Amino acid sequence: MGVGDLFIFFGWFCRYDLTAGKPIKGAVDLHVIFGWLQIGNVFRNNDIPTMLARYPGLSKHPHVYRPRNLDPNNRIYVASPCLTLPTLNRYVPGGGVFPFRFSNVLTRPGAPGRSEWLLKGWAATSTAIPPLTFHPAKNWKPIVGFDWEVTSAYPGQEFIIDTDLHPDALAWAVDLFANR
């Protein structure tokens, strides 16, 4: 991962009763896209003092301290000042949180579990399975139009798609910001 790459964050959510302080009984668990960060800077362990001088607000970041800062693969990513994507013709910060929208729900409506996804518009110019890491061909089922039903890999974290190889996914990502 390097400068200019885009993280799109998703997580496991359910409806919650704030008054009762617990999930609503019978509420459906969902995977929902909730945020983004376009990489503006990447800091490795040796760069931590420089990073803290430049970004003192990161002094409590867990990757600054042991045991994470002992791992040679440790990285701290800082967002770019603004999002830069082809065809995105508006200002969007380099990182942030989406308001809840049904269009950001990954879980397929009526699915038996949160990891059964419906990805809309991922293959507008190709019938090839999009190259999302950790998702073998058996996890993908094309449906009407340019949509896919996908059984998300478990555990689900850090999936990567190369938009040079699959530009439709980039167009899909740009659409996330169209009505942010």
Q: Can you put this structure into words, describing what you see?
A:
By secondary structure, the chain is mainly β. The chain contains 2 helices and 9 strands. Strands 1, 4, 5 and 6 form a 4-stranded antiparallel sheet that branches. Strand 2 and strand 3 form a beta hairpin. The chain is globular, with a radius of gyration of 18 Å. The two termini are 25 Å apart.
Main features:
9% helix, mainly beta, 2 helices, 9 strands, four-stranded antiparallel sheet, 180 residues
Quick take:
Helix content is 9%, strand content 24%. With 180 residues, the protein is mainly β.
Uncertain segments are none
Order of helices and strands: EEEEHEEEEEH
Rg, nearest Å: 18 Å
- Overall geometry: globular
Strand percentage, roughly? 15-25%
The helix content, as a percent range, equals under 10%
Task: Give the biggest sheet.
Answer: 4 strands, antiparallel
Task: Tell me the distance between the termini.
Answer: 25 Å
Q: Which structural class do you get from the secondary structure elements?
A: mainly beta
Based on DSSP secondary structure assignment, what is the total number of beta strands?
9
Alpha plus pi helix count = 2
Mean pLDDT, all residues: 88
What is the fold's blueprint, element by element?
Blueprint: E1 6-13, E2 16-17, E3 22-23, E4 30-43, H1 48-54, E5 76-79, E6 95-97, E7 116-119, E8 140-142, E9 148-151, H2 167-176
Antiparallel strand pairs: 1-4, 2-3, 4-5, 4-6, 7-9, 8-9
